[in-house]
Recover the amino acids of this structure.
């Protein structure tokens, strides 16, 4: 695995080296066909570098929380528009998540919208994308846009119970703001039914529970 990661990391320069050696062999009189395997390997390496990219290298630094390394890998992708569509969608998702961690919400929203427009490789990833866009809209108090994104996230599917609880709590807050209390209570019950374990989500449930039982509907 480590060897494969090293190969991906230096794939571009190794491919260039293979093509240069092939050219040298070709013009030195060896001929085209003996040099052909090096041409072939070099061209395949360059194609995979530009069309697939090094996103496989992101897993380890993301798990270790090394966001500087994650950004370095993302910045090594010179032409993201050349990436295959599902890979490009993942690229913009990760860019959006990094921007969110850096509290750059405008950039995060821009990247996540690009990812969403491309279509995520899996419906769950698309759902997570739309949920994040909905949360950012809520931060701006743009409840109409937030509702659209969160509904879309629930429709396509959200990957885990914690995120589902966040989505239902968001819908609860949106409908409380619209004074549609019956729907708000229904979404609140759905959030509790997810049985979240994250402290932040549990605290939010407790906070809403203090007053939701007193509202009509």
């Amino acid at each position: 695995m480590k060897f494969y990661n090293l190969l991906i990391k230096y794939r571009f320069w190794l491919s260039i080296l293979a093509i240069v050696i092939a050219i040298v062999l070709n013009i030195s009189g060896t001929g085209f066909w003996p040099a052909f395997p090096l041409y072939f390997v070099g061209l395949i390496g360059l194609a995979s570098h530009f069309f697939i990219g090094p996103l496989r290298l992101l897993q380890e630094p993301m798990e270790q929380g090394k966001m500087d390394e994650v950004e370095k890998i993302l910045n090594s992708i010179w032409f993201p528009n050349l990436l295959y569509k599902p890979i490009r969608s993942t690229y913009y998702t990760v860019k959006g998540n990094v921007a969110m961690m850096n509290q750059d919400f405008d950039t995060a929203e821009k990247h996540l919208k690009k990812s969403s427009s491309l279509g995520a490789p899996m419906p769950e990833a698309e759902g997570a994308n739309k949920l994040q866009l909905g949360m950012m809209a809520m931060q701006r108090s743009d409840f109409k846009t937030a509702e659209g994104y969160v509904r879309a996230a629930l429709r396509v599917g959200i990957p885990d119970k914690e995120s589902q609880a966040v989505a239902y709590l968001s819908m609860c807050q949106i409908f409380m703001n619209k004074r549609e209390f019956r729907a708000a209570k229904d979404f609140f019950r759905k959030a509790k039914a997810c049985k979240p374990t994250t402290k932040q989500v549990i605290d939010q449930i407790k906070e809403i529970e203090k007053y939701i039982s007193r509202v009509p509907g």
The first helix runs from residue 2 to 9. The radius of gyration is 24 Å. The chain has twelve helices and no strands.
